[in-house]
Design brief:
Blueprint lengths: L12 H19 L2 H27 L1
Helix pairs in contact: 1-2
């Protein structure tokens, strides 16, 4: 499993990953693959939370 490195800029790589996940979510929803879509949606939500936490941490440093 690939994870985001702390060195990946928030505004670059993470946004590209979010866009890809959101496109995948739409495709899965369109196919009626609701269980798979739920997993992708969870990944999107977790990535957004991680980005918010990281941005908050960067502001406090």
């Amino acid at each position: 499993m690939n994870t985001l490195s702390p060195a990946v800029p928030c505004d670059g790589g993470a946004q590209t990953i979010l866009a890809a996940l959101e496109a995948q979510l739409a495709a899965l929803d369109g196919m009626g693959a609701h269980i798979a879509a739920a997993h992708v949606d969870t990944a999107i939500q977790q990535l957004r939370r991680d980005l918010c936490d990281r941005q908050e941490s960067d502001r406090n440093d």
